Amino acid sequence: MRKRILITGASAGLGEEMARQFGALDRDLALCARRLPRLEELREEVTAAHPGVTVAVRALDVTDHDAVFRVFGELRDELGGLDRIVVNAGLGKGQPLGTGYFAANRQTAEVNFVAALAQCEAAMEIFREQGAGHLVVISSMSAMRGMPRNLTTYAATKAGVAALAEGIRADTLGTDIRVTTIFPGYIRSEMNARVRKTPLLVDTKPGVRSMVRAIERERPHACTPAWPWTPLSFAMRHLPLRWVGKFV
Q1: Can 154 be counted among the known catalytic residues?
Q2: DSSP 60
Q3: pTM of the predicted model, to two decimals?
Q4: Count of alpha carbons within 13 Å of 170, Cβ hemisphere only?
Q5: Is residue 36 classed as helix, strand or coil in its secondary structure?
Q6: What is the separation of C-alpha 38 from the centre of its chain, rounded to a whole number of angstroms?
Q7: Is the peptide bond before 206 cis (omega within 30 degrees of 0)?
Q8: Residue 33, strand partner residues
Q9: What values do phi and psi take at 96, rounded to 5?
Q10: Phi, psi (5° rounding) for residue 176?
Q11: Which of 63, 205, 211, 216 is buried most deeply by CB count within 10 Å?
Q12: How much is the pLDDT for 239?
């Protein structure tokens, strides 16, 4: 059992709900995000509901790469090791390329890929030193293909982190380090709170429950919820590109 779990981007959305659900499984938690007061509130909530669970929190901007390594190390020391690290922090900004919003697209790329690289580096340093661990990277169903409009940059970054995770998995075959890539479908979160008409959107709790179940199985990759996203992943990879936009 992976007793000690670090989650980035844990102050809201999918990361916050993952913390609640892993806490309910009696796991000790190391939670990072920029908004420390929200993490402290979450710590009080989880420890009140599950008194035997330890929750350590740290403020962390994942684009501060030096801080990523420092904070991961501090949390490892506080919990006496880390068994699983969930690279979850992300950003959903984006506009069609060439429309004057390079700053927003660049910020999404820096948070979703470069900062994820820093988190994976820090996690793998810990796991290589320990000789074991479970790295979990949160990608997206949009990573299956290039996506149009506001999703173009976002989808590219999520495809990038999926490829990064697969490379780490290839590099650690035959060891006690496991790597899982999660491809969430449309799950309600703070990032998409203003979206009203997205097809196949599920509420946060059941959506994250499917993610936690997949993470616990430690398979190389999983689409969540499995239905309908596992069969849809095949369709998204093979349909003509002009049809792929129908999924967004």
Answers
A1: yes
A2: -
A3: 0.93
A4: 6
A5: helix
A6: 18
A7: no
A8: 59
A9: -55, 140
A10: -95, 20
A11: 211
A12: 82
pLDDT for res 194: 57
Mean pLDDT, 10 residues at a time, the chain of 248 residues: 95 95 98 96 97 97 98 98 97 92 96 98 98 97 88 95 98 97 87 60 92 97 92 84 69
- What the block records as the tokens of 238 is 């093979």
**C-alpha span between 130 and 180 (Å, rounded):** 18
> Looking at residue 154, what is its pLDDT?
95
Q: Which two tokens stand for residue 124?
A: 């793998």
- Tokens standing for 77? 């020391």
Catalytic residue among 22, 72, 127, 154: 154
Do 116 and 42 form a contact (C-beta atoms < 8 A)? no
Residue owning tokens 């992943």: 233
State the Cα–Cα distance between residues 120 and 48, nearest whole angstrom. 31
Query: Own/partner pairs for 214-217, CB < 8 Å, 24+ apart?
Result: 214/180, 214/182, 215/84, 215/86, 215/136, 215/180, 215/182
Phi-psi region of 183 (alpha: psi -120 to 50; beta: other; left: phi over 0): beta
pLDDT score for 242? 77
The type of residue at 244 is: V
